Amino acid sequence: MDVVLKISRFDPGMDTAPRFQRFVVGVEPNQTVLDALLCAWRQDIGLSFRRSCRSAICGSCAVRINGRPALACQTLMEKAVAEGEPVTIEPLPHFKLLKDLVVDLEPFFESLKAVVPWLILREDYGGRMSPEVARSLEHPATCILCGVCEADSETSETLHPAGLVKALRLARDPRDALGAHRIRLLQVPVEVLRLFVRELPDKCPKGIEITDDILRRGVT
Ligand code: SF4
Ligand code: FES
What we know:
Number of strands: 7
Number of domains: 2
Helix content: 25-40%
Strand order of the largest sheet: 2-1-5-3-4
EC number: 1.3.5.1
GO biological process, one term: respiratory electron transport chain
Keywords: 4Fe-4S, Iron, Iron-sulfur, Metal-binding, Oxidoreductase
CATH topology of the largest domain: Fumarate Reductase Iron-sulfur Protein, Chain B, domain 2
CATH architecture of the largest domain: Orthogonal Bundle
GO molecular function: 2 iron, 2 sulfur cluster binding; 4 iron, 4 sulfur cluster binding; electron transfer activity; metal ion binding; succinate dehydrogenase (quinone) activity
Number of helices: 9
Bound molecules: iron/sulfur cluster, FE2/S2 (inorganic) cluster
Strand content: 15-25%
Pathway: Carbohydrate metabolism; tricarboxylic acid cycle; fumarate from succinate (bacterial route): step 1/1
Order of helices and strands: EEHEEHEEEHHHHHHH
CATH class of the largest domain: Mainly Alpha
Shape: elongated
């Protein structure tokens, strides 16, 4: 099928603001937005965007598709196409725009450091973890640092969702010396955290779920 893409373009050397450029690409419904972007790139190799794994693992292809942050390699064209409408592709919001669909992710990676994103091993840790706890850690550990949750967050200036995912995952880890204290150290009101935990699976391309018991242990 032929699809019209409306792609945001911005060249910092020439443009003062982003503008849209239309491309007509031939793609199958079961191809992805990333496949469509690659077709557009073959028409204009000056078009800049990031991608690497093409299988929702590296997190680099995150863009805004029809107004919603998402992974281009995970979004099927049949889902992105609406009758008679072009598919709009823009850079992630809340990040500094570098060129076309490429944004500066450095502050996003920096924000992770604030939560001490590594395990601080308890001295008395006995080396065992129940299968149930191990299973509950698996999901938040699949964060691919794509930035979609940050781009989809209304309060991204103060709340850095990927850092919260990391901190909440460590708060659940029985090997960690800080454990549930991490929740207090975050200084994010627990109602906000609860809302975040509830909304995250809908925003996150990996559907990451964090169980509410982590918060309960941290605040009682
Ligand atoms: S929590 Fe999900 S949306 Fe946020 S950075 Fe990790 S994988 Fe991406
Ligand atoms: S290209 Fe790696 S997540 Fe899309």
